[in-house]
Write a structure and sequence with these properties.
Elements (H helix, E strand, L loop, with lengths): L1 E6 L5 E5 L4 H10 L6 E5 L5 H12 L3 E3 L8 E4 L7 E2 L1 H4 L9 H8 L1 E5 L12 H9 L3 E5 L2 E5 L7 E3 L5 H12 L4 E5 L5 H12 L3 E3 L5 E5 L8 E3 L4 H13 L3 E5 L7 H9 L3 E5 L2 E5 L8 E3 L11 H10 L2 E6 L8 H8 L3 E5 L2 E6 L7 E3 L3 H13 L3 E5 L2 H6 L3 H7 L3 E6 L3
Bound molecules: uridine-diphosphate-2(N-acetylglucosaminyl) butyric acid.
């Protein structure tokens, strides 16, 4: 297996292009199942999670061209879809596989999707997805670890989510798009990826209003059409490079971003003392002088994203004074803490809150993380640590960051991917 080896101490400089958003691409690719015919998606990021979604869809009988996993433009033809299964082997590697549930029940009247089970960052149930589908008339059973959903034709329903859930809102929007009548989803997730899916569904001929707000209304239609669509940029990849620039006292233009998606992240970077300036084509981040401590509570959008929590913890280790980070979305998203501590960080965790005292002199070490964003934080730590850091289990990184080592090298970082040493 590969690992990433970083020698810290370089100031990052230059420009980096942000890839298509993982968490927008996954529901959008799943939405192709709602229509017959061939949809074309551009700016698809080259990620393992996207590849998992591709395998899921192909497993159902769709064809995807080119077959090559290195293609950013995918043509998905769903005419041959005749199998409605999302098998355990794929779902266990990617929870977002559950996004095929809504489209399959809505268009084909049945789906059999493995229950995702727990994951490294918490229990993450899908009860809200199921409750909403049941309200639309789906009969749901749990059989041998699988959710089996059946429906003649879904009907519109008034759904109030107990908590805002991103993939839950997306699943219900896709299901409602083909349901008979009007659905409302209250307490919906407001993330930009949900808004983007609303745009995609409307392009397909759906009648979705309010996607990106807490009340989404969907007037169901009989049929949807295939479309062509380019995936929007990844705000979390962008945020990760912005932190990299700030902590290395660099000067980086992060290109191909949607600045409004990054307001909470930019505000915290500025609080910490980094300079963030909008420029033609992107956001420039300069790290100057000493960083100030930060106080962060993760929240659903437009609050501070849980997907940036681990990266900001590394920033907090560089700041003079005491920073406080509270994780409210997932109950177990501090797996990076132990590894950062091994590199010399001073972090105390009490329940959902962590207190970070800085600045700490980080020293390179062999580290390993069990989730995507935790792995990204270890790469960031490696960029500012003294000596060599070896980040193991890079398959977590490859799920959500496209060629991160190449992009960092383009900014002057000393980083390479090598075969894991024994
Ligand atoms: N939850 C429930 N019941 C449900 C659904 C969610 O209790 O039916 C809980 C979860 O356990 C969690 C909270 O609600 O405590 C919010 O979870 P949400 O459903 O919003 O998360 P998700 O849809 O599974 C997406 C992203 C995650 C991101 C979260 C939060 C995708 C494919 N994944 O997950 O991305 O952290 O929203 O913003 O969109 C990542 O990219 O690294 C990542 C984990």
């Amino acid at each position: 297996m590969d690992c990433i080896v970083i020698r810290g101490g370089r100031h990052l400089k230059g420009e980096v292009r942000i890839s298509g958003a993982k968490n927008a691409a996954l529901p959008i690719l799943a939405s192709s199942l709602l229509a017959r015919g061939t949809s074309t998606f551009k700016n698809v990021p080259l990620l393992n999670d996207v590849d998992t979604m591709r395998r899921l869809i192909v497993g159902m009988g769709a064809t995807i061209e080119p077959a090559d996993a290195a293609a950013r433009t995918l043509r998905i033809c769903t005419d041959g879809v005749s199998d409605f299964d999302a098998p355990y082997e794929l779902v266990k590697t990617m929870r977002a596989s559950v996004l095929v549930l809504g489209p399959l029940v809505a268009r084909h009247g049945r789906a059999r999707v493995s229950l995702p089970g727990g994951c490294a960052i918490g229990a993450r149930p899908i009860d809200q997805h199921l409750k909403g589908l049941e309200a639309m008339g789906a009969k749901i059973a749990l059989e041998h670890g699988y959710v089996v959903a059946k429906a003649r034709r879904l009907h519109g329903a008034a759904i109030v989510c107990d908590i805002p859930t991103v993939t839950g809102t997306e699943n219900l929007m896709m299901a409602a798009a083909l349901a008979k009548g009007r659905s409302t989803i209250e307490n919906a997730a407001r993330e930009p990826e949900v808004e983007e899916l609303g745009r995609v569904l409307n392009k397909m001929g759906a009648h979705v209003e309010g996607a990106g707000t807490s009340v989404v209304t969907v007037e169901g239609v009989e049929e949807l059409q295939p479309i062509e669509h380019a995936i929007m940029p990844d705000r979390i990849e962008a945020g990760t490079f912005m932190v990299a620039a700030a902590i290395t006292r660099g000067d980086v233009l992060v290109r191909d971003v949607v600045p409004e998606h990054l307001d909470a992240v930019v505000a915290k970077l500025r609080n910490a003392g980094a300079e963030v300036t909008p420029e033609e084509g992107g956001l420039r981040v300069r790290g100057r002088g000493e960083l100030s401590p930060i106080d962060i509570t993760t929240q659903p959008f437009p609050g501070f994203p849980t997907d940036m929590q681990a990266q900001f913890m590394v920033l907090a280790t560089r700041a003079r004074g005491q920073s406080v980070i509270t994780e409210t979305i997932f109950e177990n998203r501090y797996m990076h803490v132990q590894e950062l501590a091994r590199m010399g960080a001073d972090i105390v965790v009490d329940g959902r809150t962590s207190v970070i005292r800085g600045p700490s002199k980080l020293s390179g070490a062999k580290v390993m993380a069990t989730d995507l964003r935790a792995s990204a934080s270890l790469i960031l730590a490696g960029l500012v640590a003294e000596g060599e850091t070896e980040v193991l289990r890079v398959y977590h990184l490859d799920r959500g960051y496209e060629k991160i080592e190449r992009k960092l090298r383009g900014l002057g970082a000393d980083v390479k991917r090598v075969r894991e040493r024994g």
